[in-house]
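Quick illustration for those who missed Monday's session on complexes.
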Amino acid sequence: MKRSVIAAVAVVALVLGAVVGVVAARVGQGAATAGALADVAEARGLTGEEAEAALKTFVPPGEYDEYYIFSSGGHSGQVLVWGVPSMRLLKEIPVFTPDAWQGYGYGTDQGLQVLEAGSDPAKNATPVRWGDTHHPALSETEGDYDGRWLYINDRANGRIAMIDLQDFKTKQIVDIPNSSTSHGGVFVTPNTEYAHISSMTPMPWTEDGYADLKDYEDAYRGVSSWLAIDQETGRIDLERSFQIELPPYTQDLADAGKLTSYGWGFINSYNTEMAVGGDAEGGEPIETGAIANDYDFLHIINWKKAEEVVAEGNYVERNGMRVIPLDVAIEEGILYFAPEPRNPHGVDVSPTGDYIVVAGKLDPNATVYDFELIQRAIENEDFQGTDPYGVPILNFDSVVAGQVELGVGPLHTQFDDEGHAYTSLFVDSAIAEWTLGPKAGVPEGEAFKLVDKIPVHYNIGHLVTAEGDTVAPDGRYMVALNKWSIDRYPLVGTLKPQNFQLIDLESDPLRILAEVPVPNAEPHYVQMIKADKLVHRIEVYEPGTDPLTMTTSEFATLSPDDARVERHGNVVDVYMTAMRSHFTPDIVRVREGDTVNLHITNIETTPDATHGFAIPQYNVEASLDPGEVVNITFEATKTGSFAFYCSEFCSALHLEMRGWLLVEPK
Ligand code: CUK
Ligand code: CUA
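Prediction with [4Cu:2S] cluster bound:
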C-alpha cells in the first residue's frame, strides 16, 4: 500500500478512536487523555500533524458542520452540497440532468416542466436533458450571502437555473436567448437585483442563426445578460431583464462590483484574436490562433447606467429580449475595456470592491486593477485606443495598481478577512497566498507580495475560502478543487475521482487538513457559506404543497377520504394519497388510449417520511416528501397490469405499499 493510502485510512481510524474519548467526556464518564490519543496516533502510524488534522475536521455523529459548500458538478449537470470541515457529501441537487432518486424528470409534471421550460425548442436541436454546471452564485443582500437562492449556469447550452434554498430544489431553468454557451460569467449583483450570465462562445446574430465562420467578425456576437430577479420568489423575470451586445471575443469569467465598485460588473475575455480554428482546412488550431496577442480585454460594464438606458427605451428587441446594441453601449459609456495579460481565466473582485484581480493562464502574474484608477481613466478619457468595434481601451498603466508574480498557470482567486488573496496555480499544482494593497488594509511596504505557497494534488482548478467572494470573508477554511488524483485513492477503474483538499487558513504555514474524492462530478466553481445563514430552510412542507410554486396545490388531497377517480371522456384524474403504508386508491383502472393524470399527495407530516411512486414499464418514478403533491401525466398506450409501488423504504410494511394500474384494452 502506498503511504498516502495508509494515511487516508489511518485518519479515519483515528477519528473513530478519538470519538470514544470525546463522547465519554461529554457524558461525564471520563476523557481521552493526551497519552491515550498519542497511543492511538502511534498505533495508526500517524504523525502528530496528521492526528491533529483529524481532530480538527472530525464532526461527531449527530453534530453538524459549520459551513456548507455549494459545488458545481460539471457535466453531471447537478449541484453537490458538502459539509465543512467534515467534508461529508450531504446532498446532490438535480438541476439540468434528471435524477431518479429525487423523482426529477421521470414522470412528475413539476420536474418535467422545469426541464422542458428550460430547453427552448427554437434554440435546441432536441430537448436538452443534461448540463455542464460551472459557476454557482448564492443570492446576496448588501454583498453578503443571505441563504435564499442559488443560481447556476449550464456551460454547454447557455442556460441558468434557480435553486430555492428553502427545500434545495430546482425551481426554474432559463434558456438564455441570443446565447448558445456560457462559461463562468455568472454572478449575482450585491442585492440580487440581477443574476448575470455572459456567453462564452459567440454565436451568429443573424436572422436564421447561421453564418459561415469566414463571416465571424461581422456576424458573430457575444452577450452579457442581466436577468432580473423577483425578490419574492427568486425567479428570473425575462421581461424585466436586458442584454448588452458584445464583440465576438470569448467572454469568460465574471464578477460583480461591490461596495466601492457597486453598480459595475467585470468580465474577462480571451481569443480577442477571433481565431475560429480550421486545422483540417489549412488553417491553424484555435489553441494557437487564440494566444497570439499579448493582451486580451477585461470588460468593464456599468450596469446601473445600462438599466437607465433600457428604461429610456434605447434598446432593440431580439428574440424577446431587450438588447443594448454595441454602439449604444459605447456611446452611453456602458462598456470599457482594460488590457489584461494573455488569456486570462479568473476575474475576482476583492471584498471592499476596490481591487479587481485577474489571473492569466499564460502569464505568471496576478494583475490587480484599482477601481478608483479605472474611474479616473474613464473620466479623463485616458485611452490607449479602441478595439476593432470601437470600444475604448483604458491605458493599462493607468489602471493597474500592482502585479504579483505567483507561479505557472494562475486561474482563480479568493480572499480572506485580513487582506490576503489566494490564487490557484493549475500548472504548478499549488495555491499562492499573497497580499492585496492599502485599500484592503495592507501596509504600503507589504502590499502586493507573495506570502506562502502550498502544494496540492494535483492540478487545481478553482479554490474557495469561507465566504471568500463576499464583502465579509471569514478566513478559517479553504478548499482546493483538484482535477487529477493519481495515487490519492485506491484504484477504482480507469476514470479516477476528482479530489477536494481542505486547507487550514489559520495555520502558518498553510496546511492540508483533509481530502475527499469526488466520485460523481467534476466541480468547477464552488461557494462556502456559513450554515447558520441558511435560515430559510424548511423541514417539511405545509400539507398539500406544490414544491414548484411553494403554494397549496389545486390537486392536493389531504385525506384518504377525499381520494377519488374522476373521468371526463378519456381523461382520467386520480386523486391519490400516500401514507405509511398504503396508497389510496391502490387500484387504478383506465382504458387503453386514456390520458391519465395522477395527483398524489403525501399526507405525512413527520419529517423524512418520504414515499416513492414508481410505475414499471411507464418510466415513472416520483419522490414524495411529506406534505408534497406531485402530478404525473401519461398516455395509457400500453395495455396490461402494472404493479406500481413505493420506491422508498418507508416503513415495516413498505413492501406492502403497492397497488395496480390496470390498462384495459379498447
Ligand atoms: S472554470 Cu473550471 S477550473 Cu468553468 Cu470557473 Cu476555472
Ligand atoms: Cu412508502 Cu415505502
